[in-house]
Amino acid sequence: MADVATLSALTATPHANPFPGEEPKVVRLALDAGERVDPHRHPDRQIVCYLLSGRMELDLDEETHELAAGDLIRFDGRREVSPRGVEDCEALLVLAPRSSE
C-alpha cells in the first residue's frame, strides 16, 4: 500500500503532518517572515530539514545556519533547535527514530 499527500493540502500552521501516526514522522513547516519556533529538542530523533521555498535561519544550540530554498540540513534531535523565517518559507522535515547506539 502507498499513501499519497500533497503539501498544498496541508494547511495547518506552522506545522502540518501528512501521515499522522506513521514513522518516520514527516512535518511541513511554514513560517512567515520574522516568525520563530521556540527553542526545543527532539531527543529520540535524527532530523532532516529540506527548505522548499524562502529563506530560514536555523539555530542549533549556539550555531546559526542560514538556509535558502533547496538547502538540506541534517542534525541530531538532542540539539536545541529554533527555526526562524527570514522570508516567508516552507520546509519539509523528516524526524526519524534514533537508532540504538
From TrEMBL:
Organism: Halorientalis brevis
Residues in Cupin type-2 domain copies: 30-80
Pfam families given in the database record: Cupin_2
Name recorded for this polypeptide: Cupin domain-containing protein
Residue ranges of the region described as Disordered: 1-22
InterPro entries referenced in this protein's UniProt entry, alphabetically: Cupin_2, RmlC-like_jellyroll, RmlC_Cupin_sf
Regions annotated as coiled coil: none
